[in-house]
Amino acid sequence: MRIAFFGTPDPAVPSLSAFIDDSDIDVAAVITNPDRPAGRGHRLTPPPVKIAALDAGLPVFQPDQPSQIRQELIAMRLDAAAVVAYGSILKPDILESSGHGFVNLHFSLLPAWRGAAPVAFGIAHGDTVGGVTCFRLDAGMDTGDILTQLPIQIDPDETAGALTERLAILGAPELVRAVRGLVNGAITPQPQAHDLATYAAKISSEDARIDWTLPAAVIHNRVRAYNPLPGAHTSIQGARLKVHATRLTTGSGQPGHILREDKGFPVVACGEGAVTLVTVQPAGKPRMAGDAWANGYQPDRLGD
Which of 138, 135, 113, 133 minimizes the C-alpha distance to 123? Predict the structure, then answer.
């Protein structure tokens, strides 16, 4: 079986590795986004998928627009293409460039959480079950026919970063199975229940601002959902304070006020209940434990 692989960030690397390690699969090419400036020095940095592909001796294409390599893809005579977090829209002319089509690995149980941030939206809404879906791409946004799904339990304190890493590893063999099944006919694509669809738009920094009038459970889930990016945040005396981890606790009071300490960690009143600040990051400082921060800053309220 001959495929092309489309992907860019770290979560795509396990799937690429799974295809490389399968002796029955020929990865004809890897397509990834162009190198981008990164870090404080804005140094031009290759995406993780490019690094993995070059380490494996695979040819790499980095078009500004996927349509720029349409003829090259057709000439490869592909059986299929696999996609994981490529980061650019694949238009119909590209989707028609491989024999059996393009199979995408999506980090939710479609039709739930179509869009750019499925893991974060699932956690923010308190989902206890998540998973991956392998589906055949079409012209819509995550609307294509489903090939395979793998449900998993979401741990109650799991962050979006940790869950994404877990799904990337669990989804890699699932994507290989889906591509193989599509090509050999062992798997019949099934249409989605479009009327049940929910959507997960890209998350902005403003979306991640903590509203202390919300219930503690909602705040806790949002802190998990926005870790590591863009990072849940509040303010203290006009300066930003990122909140990387909380835990639910008891208490009541005016939202945003520090009620007491829990073994040195500050307890903050919410609209209903309270949360303990476990890990925070003041502006211009590294992450620190909530107790160390409280000892140094001696806060009385947040969100001013």
Answer: 113
